[in-house]
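Rotation project, supervised by the postdoc (A.L.). Task for the rotation student: set up a whole-complex structure prediction and record inputs and outputs verbatim in this book. Inputs entered:
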Amino acid sequence: MTTMTIAKAITAGLRRVLEQNPKSLLIGEDIGKLGGVYRVTEGLQAGFGEDRVVDSPLAESGIIGTSIGLALRGYTPIAEIQFDGFVFPAFNQITTQLAKMRSRSEGRFGAPVVIRIPYGGGIGSIEHHSESPEALFAHTAGLRIMVPSNAHDAYWMIQEAAASQDPVIFFEPKRRYWLKGEVDTENPAPPAAAAQVVRPGRDATIVTYGPLVPVALAAAEAAQEDGRSVEVVDLRSVSPIDFDTVVESVEKTGRLVVTHEAPTFGGIGGEIAARVSERAFLSMEAPAIRVGGFHMPYPVSKVEDQYLPDIDKLLDALDRSFAY
Amino acid sequence: MTSTRQDSAAPDSAAPQGALFPNADAPGPANRDAANPDTADGEMVQLLDQDGALRADPDFSGYISDVDAQMLRGFYRDMALTRRFDQEATALQRQGQLALWVPLRGQEAAQIGSGRATRSHDYIFPTYREHGVALTRDVDFPQMLRIFRGISNGGWDPRENNFHMYTMVLAAQVPHATGYAMGIQRDQAGWDRARLEREGTAVVAYFGDGASSEGDVHESMVFASSYKSPVVFFCQNNQWAISVPTRVQSRIPLAERARGYGFPGIRVDGNDVLAVLAVTRWALERARRGEGPVLIEAFTYRMSAHTTADDPTKYRLSAEEESWAPKDPLVRLEKHLRSAGHADDAFFEQVARAGDQMAARVREEALAFPDPTLEDSFNNVYAEAHPLIAEELRWHKEYEAGFAQSPAEAGQEGAR
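Outputs recorded:
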């Protein structure tokens, strides 16, 4: 067991990938000497050289497009997009090429590229640095989307992503980069596609992932003071989604709150609410309640606290659920 | 010819000296418009003129010194078979057997010349019009029609011939080519020059004058130049991006753009199979040696429509089409073969017969392709197990099974 921040757990995971898979390489803007703007790749170029930790030109479509080519040649590229809002120049490469390579080749081969994206808000930053675009990618078949919420998962899931034969978008909850946790480097975390009940409860279920897992846990703790036993499910993967674990939880508790930073409309929460209503309707004591961002571009940082789901919003959602 | 080559990436290059940059002396604020992207004005490598006469070029003739009569006849045969395939596929589309076809008539020399310059281990990233290049890579013509018959989005196995699948999003394959070349560099790390020349692999990225405007071409050239990757950017300037002429894509000859990236660009007569062969060989050898990318602009003409859904009478004059007819790459090579005594009527008749036989086989096999199943589509989304795919496939099969006749129903129908 070692205590690490999420950022350093990813660094350690990447280091292990580079050590174990000679065909793996990192590519992105400022990831070499600088170690990335969040220092997630710090020290890796010094250890593995410029051909394996590649400072790229400032061109996101080029980063993903060349990563696809490297994958076609048998390499395992792990690309970094510097910020969530900068992934869109590469959106075409990701959705029309990366996601479809296996379909297009009739299953003969794919392009197993990992795309790391620091994502989410709450860091007081400027435009394009606080977004949560995961639903845009979850809607695209052919991609896997992982979102770790703690250091242990971060360490193991980045390795799982690099080992996957499918392309993976790895959303890193940037405001939790410095969140410390125990990492067991001997015993792997469960596969990303398996959601985890991170706090058991009897009366309601909060489903979330990434940066809001600590918020959901805090809300559950606060609800406990009101005598409500709240279960928290960390999805860990938003494509695919482990609906079995979610449904099992709601069948037990009868109440569902889903929360993410991304806008509520058209988001992951709506998909979960719909699936749960299809599979667990008769177990539900109340409609599923979604707590997410508003239907607006991510707001300026002075008001982002009012935009982001927080403990109070989750407690309010629980109140509304229990009011039924 | 004086050297105007500006190759900062490889100043000690052993590449031939020559006018590798068309109009390289012209640009400058005062006379920037002097270079005309619409015409073949200025330097353009040509080894076989419109009348079929060989023209010596101090830089490039040496690259075809091995080309003998048999090879020339082979090039003609390649181009004729490609044109016959194109004709047959067009007919199949007109008969409702293909959803769409993308004709290449007029671009045979650009494709056969460049394709025949590659080695079998080189890897090709085509657009969706490189049927002639496909022939040089021994891709089976009927297989190519699977894309246009709605059976497959890939058509063939690229790993068999190192000829990638067609890409329909313009220019999206160009960064793939560059990344593939970056992989090759890593595979060949530490090889000496002799081994690179002997065994080195290079990549060819095809795109057109229209796609040259796409950001992916720009980004690819930046990456390839920065890393000196072994990729040849082969731009077929066929003058038209559907209905929009090349001058809307570029105010200077496309080949000149290479200078801005720091590698050589060269314009070649795209209807001259020998010039294209020579220039592409030069570019590939250079790339293999580790001297970085080259942009080749093959100046040619799309004699047919953009696709079978297109109508060129809406946007170009027949006089323009007629002006290109004498430059037809097949006519030109036929003139040369006949005047040089390399081929006679019997040869051309034999090629025509072989074309008809090929076309008949293409038609027969294309019409006999079994239909795919939606189940195949489910199975090809992910490599690894995926619960949503499994769930939806299960639902789909149960739903479809609901329409199946029970044995009793089938029996009753038979009795009627």
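Student's summary: Residues 196-322 of chain A form a domain with the Rossmann fold fold (CATH 3.40.50.920).
Supervisor addendum: Chain A is about 35% helix and 20% strand.
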